[in-house]
Amino acid sequence: xxxxxxxxxxxxxxxxxxxxGAVEDSYQQAGLDYRxxxxxxxxxxxxxxxxxxxxxxxHAGITHSAASQTVAQMTLQKWVKYGRxxxxxxxxxxxxxxxxxxxxxxxxxxxxxxxxxxxLERGLSAPLSQVLREAIDALERRPFSARLQSAHQKLxxxxxxxxxxxxxxxx
Length: 171
Prior knowledge:
By secondary structure, the chain is mostly helical. Helix content is 63%, strand content 6%.
């Protein structure tokens, strides 16, 4: 168990490590050389067919950078491949034959993950998925960077610095 003084970021990283570690172990036990972070890309390609990185990112609800980095890893492990778009300039990502053969096993793992997630949520005071969506919505309305700026201003005022610009190394 983590110390009660752990920060929000530390708690979130630890939670992600616990969840992703167990899910990755489940994939390994199913004989899949697969990482949890591949799932949004695979699901996007299953829904959209061959797509650009931008389309994958938009469909999956992840950043272009995250989609690009994940696709690069997936290419190395033969889950996806690149092709040329209609104009020859855009790179299009598609599932490999290897990935298509593994879809049934992936869907089984995803179903098990959903059942395990529901079991976890039943043991909490509030559904984790709901709390996470609320946090994301709140940060989309007012980003954490704006909240940090406000907090620094409050601290400067409390410390008698008024509106003076004090060094803020963590911004």
